[in-house]
Amino acid sequence: MTLNASHPLMDGRTADSALITAYRGGKPERRPVWFMRQAGRSLPEYREVRRGIGMLDSCLKPELAAEITLQPVRRHDVDAGIFFSDIVIPLKLAGVDVDIVPGVGPVLGAPVRTAADVAKLPVLDDAALEPIRDAVRLTVAELGSKPLIGFAGAPFTLAAYMVEGKPSRDHLGPRTMMHAEPETWRALTDWAADASGKFLRAQLEAGASAGQLFDSWAGSLGLADYRRHVAPASARALDHVRDLGAPLVHFGTGTSELLVAMRDVGVDVIGVDYRLPLDEANRRLGGTTPLQGNIDPALLAAPWEVLEAHVREVIAAGAAAPGHVLNLGHGVPPETDPEVLTRVVELIHRMEL
Ligand code: CP3
User: Fold this and answer.
1) What pLDDT, in 10s, does the model give residues 199-240?
2) Mean pLDDT rounded to a whole number for the chain
3) Cα 301 versus chain centre, distance
4) Which of 90, 93, 167, 184 sits CB 3.0–4.6 Å from 195 for a disulfide?
5) Other CB atoms closer than 10 Å to residue 348's CB: what's the count?
6) CA atoms within 13 Å, Cβ hemisphere of 110
7) Phi/psi at 342 (nearest 5 deg)?
8) Ligand 1 centroid, distance to 14 Cα (angstroms)
């Protein structure tokens, strides 16, 4: 299977865009930049349209999800939209009792802790993904030559929420399960891989030009556990979309020791968090993998001179890699002044290649 001839990546709209060119290791005509969590609480126009509508409900209203995805693209002139949705949407669409509690994060009605709990998980029906496809179609019709990035949660990060039933700092539950009950763990992460893989495939088929797998909490694992208990499921999630030929990005936080293993699940680009300079990330990856990152989100609140010097340093360090897409080293903090983001984009686009 491949993408259809009228897909933005196939019909000439996005294949030569700065983002896709850099993801493929080529030389773009301008330095591409987008921000994780660019759509969301830092924008007054987001808070306005979200008023009175729950987070997951807003993801399932196609016009609203498209509008929220487009808001930061219009405002900041970033080089890509990131689809407005959430990593737990495939759980919700499969029929799992999950919600996003403001200020807390994903919370499940009942945690998934035993082999019986895993066996009861409902299979995600492809037809349930129609609101996602609708939202993507509406979004790409407006984006024109700017690519839309689709995404999904990696199986470890999803399973971490499912086992704990809520956000946690140390992820003790999933880390115990992978050793104490490896078969249950394997079944759970396979389930999560298939749900996330179908969610990402729906976005790519409907018009997204690249895909990013978020393994936000993989940094709580050592390399041996990551390779043995997590990487196979992440590879399985991506197996759902490899045939489509869209560039794939893999990102996690605290993953400086895992970068090679994360690349080895089979992706084109590695997203680097703010902890590791990009020249060192490039060295660890053997100089062959395009990178994305890694402006420290904390510096968005620093005086402009401090932030500007940091952005220049990130660009200089990224020059070592065979391709570099500017981003933050994690999501936009909600209290960020959006004008600072616009100014960062202008600076990046103004700098000589
Ligand atoms: O611009 C974008 O990146 C928009 C799309 C997006 C959202 N969530 C919207 C969202 C993406 C790519 C995500 C991914 C996501 N969701 C991740 C991986 C990225 C990361 O940050 O590490 C994770 C871990 C989640 C789970 C999740 N959803 C958390 C921890 C929270 C925060 C809870 C809170 O209120 O502090 C959410 C909610 C969420 N997802 C919001 C947004 C805009 C905020 C909810 C709101 O505006 O009411």
Assistant:
1) 999 999 999 999 999 999 999 999 999 999 999 999 999 999
2) 97
3) 23
4) 90
5) 20
6) 10
7) -60, -40
8) 26
Class for domain 18-350, per CATH?
A: alpha beta
Residues with a CB atom less than 6 Å from ligand 1: 36-41, 55, 82, 84-87, 100, 102-103, 105-106, 151, 157, 167, 214, 216, 331
Tokens of residue 9, six digits: 């990546």
Q: What is the pLDDT of residue 352?
A: 86
CA distance 148 to 203: 9
Domain boundaries, the chain: 18-350
Give dist(CA 336, CA 353) in Å, integer: 28
- For the CA of 216, the nearest atom of ligand 1: 22
Q: Residue holding tokens 């001179």? A: 305
Q: How many CA atoms lie within 13 A of 99 on its CB side?
A: 7
| More confident of the two residues 182 and 352 | 182
Query: Which residue bears the tokens 């088929």?
Result: 205
pLDDT in tens, 305-319: 999 999 999 999 999
Predicted confidence band of residue 1 (pLDDT cuts 50, 70, 90): confident
CA of 114 to the centre of ligand 1 (A): 27
Give me the percent of the chain exceeding a pLDDT of 70: 100
Q: Catalytic positions, please?
A: 37, 41, 50, 86, 161
Q: Which of 37, 164, 251 to mutate to test the pocket of ligand 1 (most atoms within 8 A of CB)?
A: 37
Nearest-angstrom CA–CA distance, 297 and 316: 18
In the predicted structure, residue 2 carries a pLDDT above the cut 80: yes
Minimum CA distance residue for ligand 1 atom 31:
105
pLDDT at 165: 98
